[in-house]
Design goal:
385 residues; mainly alpha; globular
Length: 385
């Protein structure tokens, strides 16, 4: 058991550090191998926990996010550019743990709430997704930016439809690698400001309310398809709880990510909907039931705890990475191109190139990156009609 958990933590750390590689990618590879289902259960749950934590390192220090935390790029990387990257890590970790324990306390409530709530909203999912999309677009600060956001949302929606119709292996890998990783790297090459020295700082724990709200929205996010990414849910939450500081937005995104992962297990055992790809793949080879969910949550807690130590150690050496960030970014681009070709083939490369071009639009147009999630939301709307 301990060996399997350690291997999962190592794989989750690897996937968290490398943009474009998600825990889902690791799961899809491992589930295709002749591995004992119970062993896979331990490895993949631990992989989820480690990825959940370590993914914040490239997001904060290199502005290269996993799709899960794409919206945290600006606040987190902005803090790193101010020399407060280590403070950002503290905020993320404290929020992850805070929301995790709140989610554990609320888990029995969620198992009763999900079946009732899902029965009520299931006939109206398409309408709710359209309404949520309109709200996301309408919350842009200016009318012209809302128009630009609509264009990006519909463009990526069209890409999403074409992607799911086409015969591409692991289509979300080249799509998200282009939208959020390669596009961010290309834009970062234009930066001429040298990386500042990262300060040894502490932070005020004045974001408890954001952790609580994040935990609640993390639970609600497991009811709807397409709008389950914590970065998206944070936009809705910020309508109720204004976010004026980068720290508080980071706390919100981290809390949502943590709670969403915990409640995804509740959603699976109660309404049969796994809102996490890794959980869905585990369930295919080793059915997740109310009897083994406590074991899964225990593995998740151990993995998050160990990975937090790994992340704090990485943060201590962040300055060394920052000094060579352009070379590292170039290597990551080469790695992404090679991986997309290997995993998804020529059609995957085409999708990767198109999504990279689409991914640079939000920063250039001055709108939020969350509109790129049209690639998931639009197909989900059509599938729900």
């Amino acid at each position: 058991m301990f060996l399997e958990i350690a291997l999962g933590i190592a794989l989750g750390t690897f996937s968290g550090l490398l943009p474009g590689i998600h825990a889902n990618t690791v799961a899809s590879i491992l589930t295709s191998l002749p591995i004992e289902p119970s062993v896979l259960f331990y490895i993949l749950v631990a992989t989820m926990g480690a990825h959940l934590v370590v993914q914040f390192f490239p997001s904060i220090f290199f502005s290269i996010p996993d799709d899960t935390v794409a919206l945290s790029v600006l606040p987190g990387h902005r803090m790193a550019l101010e020399g407060r990257g280590k403070e950002a890590i503290i905020v993320c970790l404290s929020s992850l743990f805070g929301a995790f324990f709140l989610a554990l306390l609320a888990f029995p409530v969620a198992t009763e709430f999900f079946p009732l709530a899902y029965k009520m909203i299931k006939p109206h999912i398409a309408f709710l997704l359209v309404l949520a999309s309109i709200i996301l677009i309408w919350t842009e600060s200016e009318f012209k930016k809302a128009i630009a956001a609509s264009f990006v949302f519909l463009l990526t929606g069209a890409i999403g439809i074409a992607t799911f119709i086409g015969q591409i292996n692991e289509p979300l890998f080249p799509a998200f690698a282009g939208l959020f990783a390669a596009s961010g790297i290309l834009l970062s090459f234009g930066a001429s400001k040298p990386p500042p020295k990262q300060k040894e700082v502490t932070t005020n724990f004045d974001y408890a309310a954001y952790i609580i709200v994040g935990a609640i929205f993390g639970m609600l996010s497991d009811l709807l398809p397409g709008i389950a990414a914590p970065a998206q849910i944070a936009v809705f939450a910020s309508l109720l709880l204004p976010v004026a500081e980068p720290r508080k937005f980071l706390a919100l995104v981290s809390a949502i990510a943590s709670a969403h992962t915990v409640f995804a297990f509740a959603a699976l055992v109660t309404i049969g909907k796994a809102r996490e790809g890794t959980i869905a793949m585990i369930n295919e080879v080793y059915p997740i039931t109310s009897q083994n969910v406590p074991i899964a949550l225990g593995i998740l807690l151990v993995s998050i705890g160990v990975s937090s130590i790994i992340l704090t150690q990485l943060a201590k050496h962040a300055q060394r990475f920052l000094q060579n960030s352009k070379m590292l970014n170039l290597l990551v681009i080469i790695y992404l191109v090679f991986s997309v070709w290997l995993i998804s083939g020529p059609l995957g490369m085409l999708l990767f190139a198109v999504c990279t071009a689409a991914g640079v639009l939000p920063p250039l147009l001055g709108i939020r990156r969350t509109h790129l999630m049209g690639i998931i939301i639009v197909p989900s709307i059509l599938a729900s009609i």
